[in-house]
Amino acid sequence: MRSEICRSAARAARTLLSASTRQSSRAFSGRAAAAAAAVSLRGRATSLAAHSRVDPGNASRSWISGLLALPAAAYMLTEQEAHAAELERTFIAIKPDGVQRGLIAEIISRFERKGFKLVAIKIVVPSKDFAQKHYHDLKERPFFNGLCDFLSSGPVIAMVWEGEGVIKYGRKLIGATDPQKSEPGTIRGDLAVVVGRNIIHGSDGPETAKDEISLWFKPDELVSYTSNAEKWVYGSN
Ligand code: DAT
Ligand code: MG
């Protein structure tokens, strides 16, 4: 019953918000309003629960006064959505050695357990030409040809992960390029031995991430969604 009320409250909040933004009548900043809404809604929820046990008449009055808090609640919802939209994305690939060694689940779970969100995934065998595009910045290096042969030698798991700081921290989870120099606890440190078979790729900066995501994925292969865990992964006190 109460979850039904909450759902209709959220729907009403969205309607109110779109009406108020159309009229450009925002009186508070989103953050201030969200904070106000949090305090206000906490109070309303308590009083609604208390009254509905003893006096249904009062409960309906509380319900009406609860409605007064809805415009602020609407800001809270959109703040969350805006936060999700701001989160950065990185391109991560499990190379043919990682796939053949049965490390797909192990690698995915390290990103997932950290709190990052998977927004795209597929298994592909890249062509040599595609591998050369992916590693274009290394074309002058002596290992370039062998590297591209290897990447195109078998199935690769291509992924996009999303989260605050995911580009830089994804690289930390992965570890140093040469597994001999990767710290224990990192993916390469724990699961690989030599640089030529270091099992995973991760974008090294915002520009590379953008380029690599658009090389490997069409825009409609990226799925934007709010994960259940998000409200527990993000927050400040
Ligand atoms: P990273 O994969 O850590 O971003 P990179 O971009 O410098 O490292 O190189 C891409 C890949 O090329 C790397 O994962 C493994 C291979 N590689 C790099 N240095 C190498 C070397 N000295 N000998 C052989 N392969 C190398
Ligand atoms: Mg690199």
From TrEMBL:
The keyword Magnesium applies. Residues 87-224 form the Nucleoside diphosphate kinase-like domain. Gene3D superfamilies: Nucleoside diphosphate kinase-like domain. One of its GO terms (molecular function) is metal ion binding. It catalyses: a ribonucleoside 5'-diphosphate + ATP = a ribonucleoside 5'-triphosphate + ADP; a 2'-deoxyribonucleoside 5'-diphosphate + ATP = a 2'-deoxyribonucleoside 5'-triphosphate + ADP. GO terms for cellular component: chloroplast thylakoid lumen. Transmembrane segments: none annotated. InterPro entries: NDK-like_dom, NDK-like_dom_sf, Nucleoside_diP_kinase, Nucleoside_diP_kinase_AS. SMART domains: NDK. PROSITE patterns: NDPK, NDPK_LIKE. Its EC number is 2.7.4.6. GO terms for biological process: CTP biosynthetic process; GTP biosynthetic process; UTP biosynthetic process. Belongs to the NDK family. Homohexamer. Major role in the synthesis of nucleoside triphosphates other than ATP. The ATP gamma phosphate is transferred to the NDP beta phosphate via a ping-pong mechanism, using a phosphorylated active-site intermediate. Shows the highest specificity towards GDP. This is Nucleoside diphosphate kinase.
